[in-house]
């Protein structure tokens, strides 16, 4: 990957709404060349999706998220792939990651309530043959998501005290 392509990707990762014209102004490329490279990266899967980071708490919609750590037993000759494909097909599963350390996989799961997420883990994840053990961590507050700070310290307005 050349530096201009890397720069295009970094610009779009920072702000997916950045136009080809804006990116071209930051690189040594023409607007047409930037557009062509973006289209090529979309077609070959380098760019998978454009995303908006939403502060759901601020929007007034309280979703519940949990990080589920899984200890699994592997299927012969399949490794993790068969289980991972099964897991990421559940709509509740937001992310699946292979880990090093005590646990093998980490899932981020979302739902409308703690009960809904707990039921999903108990009924859909824990019952899978390869899953030996799960640990569920409910997310209490998100301070930063995808590089965006969501929580800023409340500023307390104090009265000025005069003598």
Model description:
With 163 residues, this protein is α+β, with helices and mostly antiparallel strands. It has six helices and six strands. The relative contact order is 0.13. The strands form two sheets. A four-stranded antiparallel beta sheet has the order 2-3-1-4. Strands 5-6 form a two-stranded antiparallel ribbon. The model has no long low-confidence stretch (mean pLDDT 90).
Summarize the topology.
Blueprint: H1 3-14, H2 20-26, H3 31-43, H4 56-59, E1 64-72, H5 81-88, E2 93-98, E3 105-111, H6 114-125, E4 131-138, E5 144-145, E6 148-149
Antiparallel strand pairs: 1-3, 1-4, 2-3, 5-6
Essential attributes:
6 strands; 21% strand; four-stranded antiparallel sheet; alpha+beta; single chain; 34% helix; 163 residues
**Helices and strands: which structural class?**
alpha+beta
Strand content: 15-25%
Identify the quaternary structure here: single chain
Uncertain runs with pLDDT below 50, 5 residues or more? Answer: none
Radius of gyration, rounded?
22 Å
Mean pLDDT value: 90
What is the distance, rounded to the nearest whole angstrom, between the alpha carbons of the first and last residues? 66 Å
* Main beta sheet strand tally, sense and closure: 4 strands, antiparallel
Number of strands: 6
What spatial form do the alpha-carbon principal axes imply? flat
Helical stretch count?
Answer: 6
Strand arrangement across the biggest beta sheet:
2-3-1-4
Helix % is: 25-40%
């Amino acid at each position: 990957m050349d530096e201009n392509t890397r720069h295009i990707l970094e610009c779009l990762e920072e702000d997916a709404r950045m136009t080809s014209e804006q990116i071209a102004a930051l690189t040594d490329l023409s607007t047409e060349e930037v557009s062509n490279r973006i289209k090529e990266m979309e077609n070959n899967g380098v760019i998978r999706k454009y995303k908006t980071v939403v502060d759901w708490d601020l929007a007034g919609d309280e979703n519940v998220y949990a990080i589920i750590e899984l200890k699994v037993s592997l299927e012969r000759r399949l490794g993790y792939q068969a289980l991972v494909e099964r897991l990421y097909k559940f709509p509740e599963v937001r992310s699946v990651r292979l880990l090093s350390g005590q646990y093998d996989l980490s899932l981020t799961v979302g739902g409308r309530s703690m009960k809904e997420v707990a039921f999903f883990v108990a009924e859909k994840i824990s019952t899978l043959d390869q899953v030996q053990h799960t640990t569920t961590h409910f997310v209490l507050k998100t301070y930063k998501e995808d590089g965006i700070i969501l929580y800023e310290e409340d500023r307390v307005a104090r009265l000025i005290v005069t003598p």
